[in-house]
Fold:
Amino acid sequence: MIHFERFKLDNGLTVLFHKDVTTPLAVVNTLYDVGARDESEEKTGFAHLFEHLMFGGSVNIPDFDAPLQMAGGESNAFTSNDITNYYNVLPAKNLETALWLESDRMLSLGFTPKSLEVQRNVVIEEFKQRYLNQPYGDVWLKLRPLAYHVHPYKWATIGKVIKHIEDAKMEDVKAFFHKHYNPANAILCIAGNFEFEHIKTIVTKWYGDIPGRIKPARILPAEPEQEELREEIIERNVPTDAFYYAFKMSERRNEMYYMADVLSDALGRDKSSRLYVSLKKEQKLASEIGAYITGSLDNGLMVISGKLNDGVSFDTFDKALWKELKKLKEHPISDKELARLMIKMHTSKEFQDQGLLNRAMNLCQFELLGDANGINEEHEIYKAIKPIHIQETAIHILKPTNCSILKVKATQNAE
Amino acid sequence: MLNRTISPEVKQIDKIDFIKPQIFDISKDVKLFFMKEVPNETARLDLYFDAGTVNGDAGIASFVNGMLLSGTDEKTSTQINNEIDELGGFFESGVSNENAVITMYSLRDKVLPILKVMTNAIQNLVFHQHEVEELVNDRRQKFKTSMEKVSFIAQRAFQQRLFSESIYGRVTNESDFDSISTDSLKSFFKKNYLNGLTKVVVVGDLTQDEIDEIIDLIGSWASNTTTEFEKNIKNLKGYAHLVKDGAVQTAIRVGRMLFNKTHEDYNDFLILNTIFGDYFGSRLMSNIREDKGYTYGIGTMVAELHNVGYFIIATEVGKDVKDATLTEIQNEITRLQTELVGDDELNLVKNYLMGQLLKSADGPYSMTDLYMSVEPYGLDLDFYNTSIDSLNNITPERIQELAVKYLNWNDMTVVSAG
Structure:
């Protein structure tokens, strides 16, 4: 059980407090309800570029990191298609330093031209390092637009093309900040050995006078039901053929999400999973294979990916894979198999929950879903899942007309 | 009215509580380290073996490590993995130059059941031919993929030149995958695993009876020999570039042989290392990322081996700015050697490192790791008190002295790939 308290400031900021008496550290985690899905299609990669600019100094403080380091702390952030999350870890006695810094950049950024110019270059190098200069690095740049035709999940967080980042202007940056970075669009979680009343007082002190603005409405185009099998083959200078089968699945706030999560574990989480055992160990078709879900807030993807063994054709693999998927649709999994998946999930959850930072981040994410207490309720939702649910989910999701396949063909294997 | 331009008062960390694990003898030389103070249901068990890459021919150590759960006469690898998964366990294994480690994560009441499955699988390992072939095939594919990455190519060449003549400088080649014989795997396994256990670490709220049972289960593997690791290793100085067609970034590695925690300059050098390249506000990050925008990241570190250590700078930069980056690295070295570090910067780094140490000591898992990172050198947790003393007493002059002594460009091994 992860305890927390909640309060709201007049300007709309939601604040969570999680007490942990065992640690000398404090975590200050801020989730902004903005991600790559909130970008316009002509200016992609912006939420992430903006995350970099948040470290370039705020209206009253020229440098974000140095004062935090002076207080013995450190900071980082990440951007996804759904959210942008900033976190600070520092000695508990210096908590106010983090609140001072985080509240000032919520109030307003410095918007220096130098920061924009440099971070554009840094992000372009990040684009190259992670997506262009790695074998199979551009797979998600290809898979997203194959699976999504309308919804903004069709572009990756880093952006569609480098040009969008090169073209980012200061006026775009300011407009983005004004729209998305305001107290009503943020969830703050403070974790550590503090008293709740003290937290209320100092959060009000640092955040109370930030002007409230309206939480921006999110109206995204819904992805229409997929009605056909989609397939794309790309040739790359890689040593091995690789495959990516992406199936549409439900949005995060849906019980089907949890069923799909368990289904993906049954397919390919561990070395005892169905695809690993059948396609790798027994039939020796793949050298690597796994299955996972993207965990997106809107309709997400369940992905089966891996690499072919040398000499195995995509067609041979494809037939064997669908045969394996069919078994899950025709027969419910055994209670024993389900119990195996559940205990693995339980172990993972226990390990995740022991990190202070993880707890603070997850509380924010559940609050975004509607209630931070979801962190304590999820286990029951998983426990209620029965073999029949997994079968129903398999029937619903694992069909060709719901699937987008990306094949990466090694140049040497191309005909 | 709130004055937002002034930082709240920064309070100093006055003390850090270090907690030592309990120590039990498995044999005369092999010990079990036990951290019981875990306030939840999680547990971790690590088994260390004298089975690093320097102990065998190229590739052998890594192959044997990958085969540990590959099957016995009674059970297939799938059956073994299934049994561990049914107990909710996570199994990991890995190899470094000097040892191999098996790690098991689970809930505390499952530690012994999982360990029983594992010890049975390892004790009766048979190296089925089809499992050997599968692993060789998988590893060959992975190796080919890695060789497409400039970071891997540069790191591999750096390792060859840094350790030059030493066995540490030996790298895996594709041809090594062809010459693996099952007999050589078996003999390495017998010598370095079944008679090669060097230590055990348990983190979790287990009972004394459970600890005794762990010792009974793995006690027969205790090593009774001590590997002599190399002492005198010299890096090959100078520059080498490896061409990688089509790369849009160039990987750079710069470094030299150095010392480990047992050396008198170690703690002070670590402060210099931080200033130079080991935190977000470091000289290299400020210049090469935050001023010039040449890279997504650049960092330095001190890595340690049993008898020696080395210093390394690593980055990936745009292919047009490789030379400019090397020049800026040299400029930053010259600046450290010729100009005294300012008080503000030094104070910031001191506070930052104290915060990092506090974080490294937070919670039973971190605390155990902190202890295990000094234990191989015959040191105790008191080492961290000397680190704190070092932070309290460091001066700009001392930083400069160490930069002059250890950061000469002409002493460096420099490699780029792109």
Remarks:
- Residues 70 and 130 of chain B are 10 Å apart (CA to CA).
- Chain B has a mean pLDDT of 95.
- Chain B has two domains: 22-221, 238-417.
